[in-house]
Design a protein that fits this description.
By secondary structure, the protein is of the alpha/beta class. The protein has 18 helices and 13 strands. The strands form 3 sheets. Strands 1-6-5-2-3-4 form a 6-stranded mixed beta sheet, sandwiched between helices. It has a 5-stranded mixed beta sheet with strand order 7-13-12-9-10. Strand 5, helix 11 and strand 6 form a beta-alpha-beta unit. Helix 12 runs antiparallel to helix 15 and helix 12 packs across helix 16.
């Protein structure tokens, strides 16, 4: 087992906050001296059948704890899924049926083992203890927290002051999530920054039960391909882990260099020394890895994680054939354009400095002399999604890498 300092270096990677870090250091010391691993918990409500890279940020952190020798509890919130997580919502969330929850839960189990070691992962369902609670037990749990404390939570507070309805059952959600930590006797719970209130409820309930309170580790919410909004299927800025290898590879290659750094920090298995070389390359420092090569390496790693090395290589070959064979040079001017609404292709060419006017841009499009990320553009009225990164080509020798930020 690694030393406390070595473990903390891994644990801090990408984390937003560790509460309380001194307590975690002490837990690690005791774990090393006793040889007993810590119990690491993260809960996931099976609200959708498929996972995207945003979901895997916590799973990747679980894997790091697993590689450090600790016991990982992957908690599937089949009970909480029927309540509906109110986190970040401005209205009451529609709860799922038990059939929907169980069907999605099975898919989750299949997908998480693309990252976690199935032999070292404890998969638990919170219905195992919550389903055994009587009405009196649930009332007793509800008595542990006041309405005033619940309204300290940001989303509840905003809805209350904005006169948006809050259903009584929504107050139960953080209590049930917190009680999961009591049932599992968790040493550490992971969650997104938006889950901080719920994670701290777990600490409080453990104290009331006479347990040592869990440490809380929050991870950032991963931005999607646009580099601005949280990765979400509803926004269309996601990379699904069940998408075809070619799609995953191509989407990773479309992100900006700055976003690539964030993906490396939160999703990659590379060590900290290699990560520094990626950072140096983006910053243009001597000895750093060229950003294009770093991006390819990240795309290969993610495709291999969800498929295999062979499919990762083929996805890269397809990408190289599609783009490099069309003679797109490595070093082309970079233009930053504000992300937002779709941009008319002619205006995009002009703003990128490839044409002097929208009229010239239209003529080039109609002549078949314009390419967008390697594909010929034939529609002069095309609207280009203003997210991620695209390569524009006008004629044979004029290129621009447009980064929407």
């Amino acid at each position: 087992m690694k030393t406390v300092e070595e473990q903390m270096e891994v644990i801090r990677r990408g984390a937003v906050e560790i509460l309380v870090e001194a307590e975690l250091v002490e837990k690690l010391r005791q774990s090393i001296s006793s040889g007993v691993p810590l119990k690491i918990k993260a809960g996931f409500d099976p609200t959708a059948p498929d996972l995207h890279l945003g979901h895997t940020v916590l799973i990747q952190k679980l894997k790091q704890f697993q590689d450090l020798g600790h016991e990982v509890c992957f908690l599937i919130g089949d009970f909480t899924g029927m309540i509906g997580d109110p986190t970040g919502k401005n209205e009451t969330r529609k709860p799922l049926t038990m059939d929907e929850v169980l069907q999605n839960a099975e898919t989750y189990k299949e997908q998480v083992f693309k990252i976690l070691d199935p032999d070292k992962t404890k998969v638990v369902f919170n219905s195992a203890w919550m389903g055994q609670m009587t009405a009196a037990d649930l009332i007793g749990l509800a008595s542990r927290y006041t309405v005033a404390r619940m309204l300290e939570r940001d989303d509840f507070h905003k809805r209350f002051t904005g006169q948006q309805p809050i259903a009584i059952h929504e107050f139960l959600y953080p209590l049930v999530q917190g009680y999961d930590s009591v049932a599992l006797q968790a040493d550490v719970e992971l969650g997104g920054t938006d889950q901080k209130f719920n994670l701290l409820v777990g600490r409080e309930l453990q104290k009331q039960e006479g347990q040592k309170p869990q440490c809380v580790l929050t991870m950032p919410l991963l931005e999607g391909l646009d580099g601005v909004n949280k990765m979400s299927k509803s926004l269309g800025n996601y990379i699904g882990i069940t998408e075809p290898p070619k799609e995953i590879f191509g989407k990773v290659m479309s992100i900006s260099d700055e976003l690539m750094l964030r993906y490396y920090e939160l999703l990659s298995d590379i060590d900290l020394a290699a990560l520094q070389k990626v950072r140096d390359g983006v910053a243009g420092h001597v000895g750093g890895t060229h950003p294009m090569e770093s991006k390819k390496a990240l795309a290969r790693e993610l495709v291999a994680r969800f498929y295999d090395e062979g499919q990762a290589r083929r996805a890269e070959e397809d990408f190289v054939h599609q783009f490099k064979q069309k003679e797109i040079p490595d070093d082309i001017p970079r233009v930053n354009i504000k992300a937002g609404h779709p941009v008319w292709i002619c205006r995009l060419l002009t703003e990128a400095g490839l044409t002097a006017s929208n009229g010239e841009a239209r003529r080039l499009v109609l002549q078949g002399a314009v390419r967008l990320s390697g594909e010929k553009v034939s529609d002069a009225d095309l609207e280009v999604a203003a997210c991620g990164e695209v390569v524009l080509q006008a004629g044979k020798r004029r290129f621009a890498r447009v980064v929407f930020d």
